[in-house]
Specification:
This protein has 421 residues and is mainly α. It is 77% helix and 1% strand. Strands 1-2 form a two-stranded antiparallel ribbon. Helix 5 packs parallel to helix 14, helix 6 packs parallel to helix 13 and helix 7 runs parallel beside helix 12. The longest helix is centred in the middle third of the chain and has 33 residues.
Length: 421
């Protein structure tokens, strides 16, 4: 308690610095979930993807990041264990921010798409074990986390596989792909709009005063999706194509339509990601600011100070602009060759899996979900279409993320404890 009384302002400033670093790491690594496939399919250039993601990620983080946040991310540790020693919780949260941020930046440097959620969870568990003991950790939560390494990529992979197969059978592997695209693409537009609406309502708008029931959300999503499909039907039928064009030109025209769908889906995912995953950076930061402001009192939730959300949003944007290119390249081109229709299948499968996870409470990593979806699209063309060396590196980086975060947090926690004690 003496540490908080004597160094309160310094602790908040240090936490803000490390929270900014964590947000930087989120932008550098996790934003590839939204934009990697769009870049890989050449639907967007790197510069266009960065500009679009900067706008929607910041909008999601700032407008829908929440006025109140859980101070202990995912409830992985028991805050009651720190009631008598809030200074340890403050130092531990600061250590966790630096540890997770450093790991994300290192992974981004090597182009590894890792889970930001798992990074901060590993860090928080590490400091909790050495500061209070194993009893401070709710180990039952770990089963879901480890299971998500397999379950969520499998779900998104299966959805992407069948989505891409349907596109192939209904449109590309037919005698008249262009006319079949006019017939079936409005259906895919309906699915896209439906998933986007559900993701946005579930993940992006719950913090801005729009609290719809599940039934109301579904009905509103269906209504908007029907309108989008109708508009898409009018747009596609209004396009004039030369009937004398060869099949390659027909394929290219169809791919352009899927490219547009991909960009729309990517924007929605960026908004939802910014609104949701910014909590990985501002949750621990809000905990520190709240505990210091209350003189050591620990609450399960904390009101977010006015400066914290912009700090997180700006950090995400700068991280994306400075270091996002490598991870986008890994996701977009390193795993398998993507075309707009393949990328669309992967992106829609990722968004659909996010909706399923939100509705069922399934632990999820959006990074692992997208990688699974891209794998599913690759497998639709055979195992030879996948770059197994890149996949091996990605899986290894997933496995070591939790212990890496924990080890770094333990080391930093001891350094901070020595400095402030």
């Amino acid at each position: 308690m003496d540490i908080i009384a004597n160094y309160g302002t310094t602790l908040v400033l240090v936490a803000a610095l490390f929270g900014f670093l964590m947000a930087w790491g989120i932008g550098a690594n996790d934003v590839a979930n939204a934009m990697g496939t769009s870049v890989g399919t050449k639907s967007l250039t790197i510069r266009q993807a960065i500009i679009i993601a900067m706008i929607f990620e910041f909008a999601g983080a700032y407008l829908a990041g929440g006025e109140v946040t859980a101070t202990i991310r995912n409830g992985i540790i028991d805050s009651n264990a720190f009631v008598d020693s809030p200074d340890l919780l403050v130092l531990g949260m600061i250590a966790s921010l630096l540890a997770a941020g450093a790991w994300l930046i290192l992974a981004s440097y090597f182009g590894w798409p890792v889970s930001t959620t798992h990074s901060i969870i590993g860090a928080i568990v590490g400091f909790a074990v050495v500061s209070i003991g194993p009893e401070a950790v709710q180990w039952s939560k770990f089963g879901g986390i480890v299971g998500s390494w397999v379950i969520t990529p499998a779900i998104s992979g299966v959805i992407a596989y069948f989505m891409f197969i349907s596109v192939q059978k209904l449109i590309f592997n037919t005698d008249d792909p262009l006319n079949n695209a006019k017939r079936y693409v409005p259906f895919y537009m309906f699915l896209t709009a439906l998933v986007i609406c559900l993701v946005t309502i579930k993940k992006g708008l719950t913090h801005v005063g729009l609290h719809l029931s599940d039934g109301e959300g579904i009905l509103l999503s269906i209504a908007i999706s029907i309108a989008v499909a109708f508009a898409g039907w009018i747009y596609i039928r209004g396009q004039k194509y030369n009937p004398q064009d060869d099949s390659k030109m027909h394929f290219a025209n169809v791919e352009k339509v899927f490219g547009i769908l991909m960009v729309i889906t990517a924007c929605a995912m960026a908004f939802a990601h910014g609104s949701n995953d910014v909590a990985n950076a501002i949750g621990p930061l809000s905990a520190v600011a709240s505990i210091v402001a209350s003189g050591g009192e620990i609450s399960s939730q904390a009101a977010i100070a006015w400066w914290i959300l912009p700090l997180g949003g700006i950090g995400i944007v700068i991280g994306l602009a400075t270091m996002g290119e490598k991870v986008m390249a890994t996701v977009g081109t390193g795993i398998t060759h993507l075309t707009p229709s393949r990328g669309f299948a992967a992106q829609l499968a990722t968004a659909a899996t996010v909706v399923i996870a939100s509705g069922t409470g399934l632990p999820i990593s959006t990074t692992q979900t997208l990688v699974g979806a891209v794998m599913g699209v690759g497998l639709a063309r055979g195992i030879a279409a996948l770059n197994l060396g890149v996949l091996r590196n990605i899986v290894v980086s997933w496995i070591i993320t939790l212990p890496a975060g924990a080890i770094l947090a333990i080391a930093i926690f001891y350094v901070l404890h020595a400095c402030f004690s």
